[in-house]
Amino acid sequence: xxxxxxxxxxxxSFKEINTIAIPAIIAGIAEPLISLSDIAIIGNxxxxxxxxxxxxxxxxxxxxxxxxxxxxTKTAISALVSQHLGSNRLHAVKTLVPQTILLNFxxxxxxxxxxxxxxxxxxxxxxxxxxxLDYTKSYYRIRALGYPFTLVTFAIFGVFRGLQxxxxxxxxxxxxxxxxxxxxxxLVYGVEGFIPAMHLxxxxxxxxxxxxxxxxxxxxxxxxxxxxxxxxxxxxxxxLKPLISMASNLFLRTLALNFAIYLANSYATDYGKxxxxxxxxxxxxxLFFSFFIDGYANAGNAIGGKLLGAKAYKKLWNxxxxxxxxxxxxxxxxxxxxALFYDEIGLIFNKDEQVLLLFSSVFWLVLLMxxxxxxxxxxxxxxxxxxxxxxxxxxxxxxxxxxFWPTLLILDYVGLKLYAIWIAFFVWMLIRSIALVVxxxxxxxxxx
Length: 448
Fold this sequence. Notes:
Blueprint: H1 14-28, H2 30-42, H3 49-70, H4 72-86, H5 96-117, H6 119-124, H7 130-143, H8 147-162, H9 167-189, H10 199-225, H11 240-271, H12 273-309, H13 313-340, H14 342-349, H15 353-368, H16 370-385, H17 389-413, H18 418-447
């Protein structure tokens, strides 16, 4: 009989992880790519480029905040579908899926009307004023029309991920991203004699159309490829209450997350237009990296929930180690590419010397934190799949109000400006990663 040391520990295969992770990476970067392409194209228009870039960055951050907050039902439905898939009980969530999609749609309408009406007040709170404020209002009121498209699409993507399939979401995102970039060039710069140059508003229209295309494709895959349907049941699914509870905790968690992003942009705007322009580039690159690395977190979310449903705790532990390794490798590759083209990256988004100088002086710090980010995002994904929403909420509250905010206040007081913002983010991510690793190790290593 072989000794225990020669018994191979049960593991999820590299192929199985990457079958979910790689399409999830491509799907996940679609939204930040839309914002990045808008910023790159807008930042190179001839008139008022710095003001337009600042407005696009502020709106992009606010949109990401709102979408992250409202899209927590995507994570919740993914966790429940994957857990029921693991326990061979998908029939128990068949009526839950259309109810969740409807919930996201109604929330998106509510948020659109509230935020569009109070747009001036919202962006004044970011310290935007004058031409920047005018640009943010007009750009946001068009881009916000895409909320219903995006949030319904995200709910459907959550179902796909719960079914261990991120390929369909990837296809939708690729087409949506291509449509957005193509329309950006047509509508921002115009075509002489055919399409007038619409500048910032043209970029917003391009984004909304792209989001509509993604929704149409997502609905096709949902109806044709999944065991679920869109028919609503008048009887509330018994899993709806746990889903709302999980989504509510993740909602509070994401509020804390976006409070940190709001503070960063508010402080940067207060420093001056060149600072918020540089911060807009830095933040959107950071978000792009986050969504890129998040592909492995999505794999952890989908597979982790399935393994929990099947009570396969040893495989779950090994999964965390493998995905951590892959996520860190991805982060290091991204760091290496950006280090190689360090000076050229800023030029993609803007040509203003002062903006580029500020960007270059801080960009190294954004790169340095990526391996820490990868650990935090990866365990975020696994904890979401396991339904550990309450703990995730508490970690974010502590990291934001006892880590990020005090660090920003102290370093801003001594005049570090953009350095204050990004060192505060570094502290924020460090607290998140340590808290999640310690909790997971204590709970799930013991269960093996």
